[in-house]
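So, could you explain the following?
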Amino acid sequence: MIPHKPRLPIRDVLLFGLWPSFVKVWLYRLKGYRIGKGVSISLGAVVVGDKVTIGDHTTIGFLTVIRGKEISLGSYVNIGTMTFLDTPYIEIGEGSKINEQVFVGGLQFPDSRFVMGRNCQIMQLSFLNPAPSITMGDDSGVGGYCLIFGHWSWLSQLEGYTVDFQPIEIGKGVCLAWRVFVGPGTKIGDGSVIGANSLVNGNIPPYSLAAGYPARVISRALDFPKRLSEEDLRQVFRKIVEDMANCFTGWGLQCERQEQRFRFTRTVDSWWRRKTSSLVLETFDGQPNEEWVKGLQGVDVVLSLCEIPVAVRNRLVEKRVMWIDATKKEQSRNSNELGDEVSLFLKRYGIRTLRWPLEKQA
């Protein structure tokens, strides 16, 4: 008979879930799981699999369950509270995030597969059924309350009703707004946007805006997305920087500005003394070069509009300066408090940065 799989892995929750994170990581390593440094697995959270790999600095939230035959979580992955991932093959790329109370599972096959690329995000309370598979390309996002179903199946096919099991493919840089329903066999091309409350069942071409019930393409390349001139890009970049400085000031930081350089100062009161710390951000909308790097004395973070060449990136790393490349949507692997806040703020404007791969730092 087919082995029985309980709906919830109660045994694993009792054996592993109640331990503190560092003990849990140690026990999982004894089981043969490959777990990187700085991994945090919260109270009540468990990972159940035959072959498990978890990258550096990945976080798994309170009462979250991840279960499958083969599980691969990249570095800097963040999985929120009370999320349930239950699929034979799970692969989540570096820097991706799944918010609270997301469910991935349901009616499946032995080889069903759920794949998220790098730097993706699924918002809270979404339900995904990978029967037989769901794949998402890099830098794609799924809004809250979305329903992504890999099957139509309820009434008898012998009575003429439709029964359908097909994979779902979501391309790179795709945005699904809130409350989107995606049916089996759907393919959404790279760079496309699906409007809120839409039903998608079929093919959406790349770089299209689609909406409706069912979704219809209402704009496409070359009209969508809007192409910006170099001057437009500079104006947008400067506006983002202004908004960021205003927000940081509103959140209690002191800001001293000199042209495109910002010094942010934070004062924290403890029981016995007041501690003040400052970090400096340099923003730049020109073309970075090595001569420009020489003038970066006392700078902690560089935010560049234009692509930062490899040689300049390496020079910044040597100077222990965190860099963020807004065009390539990449950042250095070294970071600091200010740089992390800048990177987080940029996500508001759709600029989600990935850490520069180690193999490229040569």
About this structure: Residues 230-360 form one domain. The CA atoms of residues 125 and 244 lie 29 Å apart. The chain has two domains: 10-220, 230-360.
